[in-house]
Write a structure and sequence with these properties.
With 323 residues, the chain is α+β, with helices and mostly antiparallel strands. It has helices at residues 8-14, 59-73, 93-109, 161-170, 172-175, 179-189, 195-204, 217-229, 244-253, 273-282, and strands at 4-5, 26-28, 38-39, 45-52, 76-87, 113-121, 129-138, 152-156, 209-212, 232-235, 266-270, 287-294, 299-303, 306-310. Helices cover 33% and strands 25% of the residues. Helix 2 (59-73) runs parallel beside helix 3, helix 4 packs across helix 6 (179-189) and helix 4 (161-170) packs across helix 9 (244-253). The chain is globular. It starts with a strand and ends in a 13-residue tail after the last strand.
Length: 323
């Protein structure tokens, strides 16, 4: 379609009429011609924004999951999301409807209301970009936790789930995956939410700090949290953290899975690592203790009794898109 916004009729048919999920905290939600949404809730709010630029399939639901992950990692209960869709001129209104239906299904799944946003076709992009802004509310008794020396470092699920299905989409011909492997990747796409583990942590009553593992993979997340929390971290990585399919994809494409975007995995720091892991396991959530907080400055990876400093680097995904 030619560059520009959707007409009022098209906006209703392909966006507004598809939005069914409702929250009592939303006073004014998505509507034609409205400039803002209005929310009312007691206590403190947390807000986060994230763009999805690498994926094209299921990009709507992924945008919802990714932004809700960060709200949840901040001990917030997600309430509302705003979505901005920037689509290339090669797409049309049917693509808008497909993306919005996908996003709305995910919003309904987590009891979140899409309260507004923006949609347009533009020659400024050559593939779809969906940016989500998430809004959540925190419990009145929330207190940030400051990690201490000796605390355990936990990661949930397998790493690089999101990166695996994005790379598989971008390099389908080179990878030549079987139908069984494609089915497994679809499960990965459905597993990129960390809201279940975040709820376990919130309800546990155990002191903890959470960080959603996204761009830069687990190594990037460890470097970030070390810098943000001003703590030392030492970790060890094992093959059990990455599925055989993810390892196959990464080996074929020359990608480090520990540097690959990993939505669906949560990094948790807590003084009660074993107890937290057991609680997560009771909900069917894989949890692996990979290290501890130390009195050193910075983050380090232990390999064969050698300590290697970990620094944040661009995600391995970006080196592969477009190849």
């Amino acid at each position: 379609m030619a560059s520009g916004k959707l007409t009022g009729k098209s906006l209703r048919e392909n966006v507004l009429d598809l939005l069914k999920s409702r929250r009592k905290e939303v006073l004014v939600g998505a509507n034609l011609g409205g400039d803002t949404a209005s929310l009312l809730a007691e206590g403190s709010f947390c807000v986060h924004t994230d763009p999805i630029t690498g994926a094209t399939e299921e990009i709507g639901s992924l945008a919802i999951k990714v932004v809700l992950n960060d709200i949840s990692a901040g001990f917030g209960e997600p309430i509302a999301v705003l979505l901005t869709l920037l689509l290339p001129e090669s797409m049309d209104e049917s693509d808008v409807k497909r993306i919005m239906l996908d996003a709305e299904r995910e919003a309904e799944n987590w009891n979140v209301e899409i309260v507004g946003g923006h949609t347009e076709f533009t020659d400024a992009v050559n593939r779809p970009i969906v940016n989500a802004v998430g809004i959540g509310k925190r419990a009145g008794n929330y207190k940030p936790y400051a990690p201490k020396v000796g605390d355990s470092i936990i990661v949930t699920k397998n790493l690089a789930l999101e990166g695996s299905f994005i790379l598989a989409e971008q390099h389908a011909k080179k990878l030549s995956l079987s139908q069984g492997e494609l089915d497994e990747l679809r499960h990965y796409a459905e597993s990129t939410s960390v809201m279940r583990e975040a709820e376990v942590v919130r309800l546990s009553g155990l002191p903890a700090l959470m960080h959603d593992i996204t761009e830069g993979g687990v190594l990037g997340a460890v470097a970030e949290i070390s810098d943000i929390a001003k703590i030392g971290i030492q970790i060890e990585l094992t093959s059990t953290l990455v599925s055989e399919l993810t390892q196959k994809i990464c080996d074929t494409l020359g990608v480090n899975p520990y540097r690959l975007i990993s939505s669906g995995s949560m990094l948790i720091i807590t003084p009660n690592g074993q107890k937290m892991s057991e609680l997560l396991a009771t909900k069917g959530i894989k949890a692996t203790i990979i290290g501890k907080v130390t009195d050193d400055a910075g983050a380090y990876l232990s390999i064969a009794n050698e300590k290697i400093k970990i620094i944040a680097e661009p995600d391995a995904l970006y080196r592969k898109i477009g190849e």
